[in-house]
Amino acid sequence: MSYTIPSTWLVLAIGYWLGDNYQQQGYAREAVNALIEFCFSILKITRIEVVCDPDNIPSQNLAKSCGAVFEVSSPNRYIYNGKPYQGLVYSILPPES
Q1: Which of 25, 37, 47, 55 gives 11 a disulfide partner, CB atoms 3.0 to 4.6 angstroms apart?
Q2: By C-alpha distance, which of 93, 86, 85 is closest to 69?
Q3: Phi and psi at residue 52, to the nearest 5°
């Protein structure tokens, strides 16, 4: 299978949600790590971002466990129920070649 992404779109954001009964079992980490590998090796993405709510510690921990690095706290970074919220921006960069 072949994928072509315009070179101006080599940055993407990922998000995740997992039902309460499936949390803390490694499923999300496994899925996010597989997605990261796919994005870097197949799609040739140059940067992945994860934006977390400042109160969502499990989401922040998941991002960090998958190699994400905190960059900035950004006001009005995402919209929820029609209202803008602060978001913590984490980034993941491809491994050095």
Answers
A1: 47
A2: 93
A3: -120, 150
